Amino acid sequence: MIEKLLLLLFFFFFTPSFVSPAADPAVISPQDPTLLIGSSLVATCTVSPDFHLKAEDLYWTLNGRRLPAASYAALGPTTLSVALARLNGSKQQSGDNLVCHSRDGGILAGSCLYVGLPPEKPVNITCWSKNMKDLTCKWAPGTEGETFLHTNYTLKYKLRWYGRDNTCQEYHTAGPYSCHIPKDLALFTPYEIWVEASNRLGVAVSDVVMLDILDVVTTDPPSDVHVSRVGDLEDQLSVRWSSPPALKDFLFQAKYQIQYRVEDSSEWKVVDDVGNQTSCRLAGLRPGTVYFVQVRCNPFGIYGSKKAGIWSDWSNPTAASTPRSERAAGGCDPKGGEQNTTLRRELKQFFGWVKKHAYGCSNLGIKLYDQWRVWLQKSHKTRNQVLPGDKL
Amino acid sequence: LSPLCPPSLRHRVPTGDSWGIFTFLCAALCNLPALPALNCTEELGAGQSIQKTYDLTRYLEHQLRTLAGTYLNYLGPPFNEPDFNPPRLARVERVPSATVDLDLWRGLTDNARLAANYRAYSRLLCYLRALDGQAGTAELRHRLGHFCSSLQGLVLSIAGVMSSLGYPLPAGPPAPPGTPVASNDFLKKMDDFWLLKELQTWLWRSAKDFNRLKKKVPPAVVTLRLEARGF
């Protein structure tokens, strides 16, 4: 029982909440000031009378380094000042630590110095809307170097003809200088968008950007991208995809782009004139090679807009390989182009002439020639049955 | 503006004797006819809970080293100097101090020690969450967020251990107003420094506590299981 009582007493004394709060040992002035780079400062440290310390018992440190005694001055029996000239930008954004010490090194008081520059106008504001549902904007800070102070960025927007300022709330969605507006956006009407940068030393406002949501529409990459062989043709692959579902209901003629590369190369070949189709045949490929193919979409002409939209991300790469053999050229040929054009052209002309002048040979035509070629390759086909669309 | 975090409570006088209850239980169970399907899940649960809590404590200790390093660099020198030791200014203590006499600490019952741990981490979590939301880089904020989630896990884990051992959870203290927040930025930096320091000490000591507790619990479990198998 006595032990428990002793325990109780012990805990009572141990908890400092029962000690009456004493005054701070010293007071620094100015406390936590904000200063422009290059400015000077005189700070004073006044010790509390309870501590029985004199001005000559004190010294200063800035960010852990002792300041020279030559810059000190005793302004009174318990007050020591220090002069700091041509201050550099703060070493850390939480402020430089200016500390007043007693002779034995103990900390009496401290003040955080915020030394820096006012912010510069943010620049390069670019925005995009995903499927006309939202708006994401990103910008770059005005200063290439630092302001040394923590800078807050606020993206604001308003309808051009309407008037009320709105503030974007969701930051850092697409990098450190970005913001996302998820809803309540109007179409067919221009918005004014700008970014305000502020820190302890001031505010800077970017130029205003004006845009209509419909002008900056992007969408998801095409879905269900399939790449397959074209029969046994060794230099061709057929790419098929579906238009992004989100914009299916909106009248637009999407444009597509395909890029492909050989497995070991980092050089992408781009096929630009795919137009509005959802399939394409790549020709002029190397036989027996693995290719990676990606497709992307541009919601061109959405709601009748004459402007191009913003290209979507590339679809995930799909791999496929061409069968073994050889040939060469390039481009997307929906009609299934044949290489060695001179021979083919001559043959076409020949068959044309045959049709006109030879009766009973109506079946003879370029189509028959194509079929003969396919048959020729089939009979030569053997090993390396890599199935199309194999992901390696 | 940091939210109101409850100030340090007086340590309550430890009550109850876990060992006494345990011995009684063992005696009682040993005298029962052997039950083929002796449900040991309660005791087993406690052992596993304790192990999990111990592991979590070690994980947090490790995480804290990196977090503290980054945060102290953000505060700048002298806070990130290895021998830095600022005074604990005698204001109303906000952060629960881990520096209690070790013999005294060990003299407490398991219940009292667990309760002290539970209360301390709940408050430490509260203060940690209040660390400046604008602080430093996005990376620092992200680390802080992750650490707070893990610390929340520790608080819950301790609650789990207490309930599996049959101890009542300490009642949540009402947050009284008027706990003074640091009056200037430098004092706030010192508070932040001590918060991290105390957290380090608490985690270091808790690891030892849970390791010791782990060794106490299983032997009883083994005994009970053998009893069941004997039939």
From TrEMBL, chain A:
- Give one Pfam family, short name only: EpoR_lig-bind
Residues in Ig-like domain copies: 16-100
GO molecular function: any one?
cytokine receptor activity
Q: Does the keyword DNA repair apply?
A: no
- Look up the signal peptide feature and give its range: 1-21
Q: What UniProt keywords apply to this chain's record, in alphabetical order?
A: Disulfide bond, Glycoprotein, Immunoglobulin domain, Phosphoprotein, Receptor, Repeat, Secreted, Signal
Where it sits in the cell: the answer is:
Secreted
Matching entries from InterPro entries are given as: FN3_dom (IPR003961), FN3_sf (IPR036116), Growth/epo_recpt_lig-bind (IPR015152), Ig-like_dom (IPR007110), Ig-like_dom_sf (IPR036179), Ig-like_fold (IPR013783), Type-I_Cytokine_Rcpt (IPR050379)
Q: Which family does it belong to?
A: Belongs to the type I cytokine receptor family. Type 3 subfamily.
The protein in question is named Cytokine receptor-like factor 1
From TrEMBL, chain B:
Q: Which family does the record assign? A: Belongs to the IL-6 superfamily.
Tell me the GO BP annotations in alphabetical order.
cell surface receptor signaling pathway via JAK-STAT; positive regulation of B cell proliferation
Function field: In complex with CRLF1, forms a heterodimeric neurotropic cytokine that plays a crucial role during neuronal development. Also stimulates B-cells. Binds to and activates the ILST/gp130 receptor.
SUPFAM superfamilies to which the protein is assigned, alphabetical: 4-helical cytokines
Q: Which Pfam families match?
A: PRF
Species per Swiss-Prot/TrEMBL record: Accipiter nisus
Q: What Gene Ontology molecular function terms does this protein carry?
A: cytokine activity
> Per the annotation, which location comes first and is thus the protein's main one?
secreted
Q: Where in the cell is it found?
A: Secreted
Q: Does the keyword Lyase apply?
A: no
Q: How does it assemble?
A: Forms a heteromeric complex with cardiotrophin-like cytokine CRLF1/CLF-1; the CRLF1-CLCF1 complex is a ligand for the ciliary neurotrophic factor receptor/CNTFR. The CRLF1-CLCF1 heterodimer binds SORL1 (via N-terminal ectodomain); within this complex, the interaction is mediated predominantly by the CRLF1 moiety. The tripartite signaling complex formed by CRLF1, CLCF1 and CNTFR also binds SORL1.
Q: Which UniProt keywords apply?
A: Cytokine, Glycoprotein, Secreted, Signal
Query: A cellular component term (GO) from this record?
Result: extracellular space
Q: Does the keyword Signal apply?
A: yes
Name by which UniProt lists this protein: Cardiotrophin-like cytokine factor 1
**Superkingdom field:** Eukaryota
Positions in coiled-coil regions: none
